[in-house]
Specification:
By secondary structure, this protein is an all-alpha fold. It has four helices and no strands. The mean pLDDT is 80.
């Protein structure tokens, strides 16, 4: 079955997006929703949240052609000092699996 019309709406902040999702004004989003349980899931039994197991959704892209990210040792050091447990617990409110290194 073909979709008759597809609307793409851009939201300039997560609060507006969370509100649109909770109110049914948006059907899908790829965004971090603070307090996902109370802000979205509790609003409707049909609301669903999913995060890929073991992959996490946070990624840091860097330009490896310019300093300091052109230095492999520096990139490895940055990777080693990121506290993924704290990031998962605090920044992502436990809503995503802890990412792999």
């Amino acid at each position: 079955m073909a979709v008759p019309t597809l609307f793409y709406v851009s939201y300039n902040d997560n609060t507006a997006l969370t509100t649109a999702l909770a109110n049914g004004d948006a059907d899908w989003a790829q965004a971090f929703i603070p307090n996902v349980q109370s802000a979205y899931l509790d609003k409707d039994e049909n609301n669903v949240y999913w995060a890929p197991a073991g992959l996490g959704i946070d990624t840091m892209f860097v330009n490896t052609t310019t300093a300091p990210f052109d230095d492999l040792a520096f990139r490895k050091a940055v990777n080693m000092v990121v506290d993924r447990t704290q990031h998962q617990a605090i920044a992502r409110e436990g809503g995503v699996p802890e990412p792999r290194r």
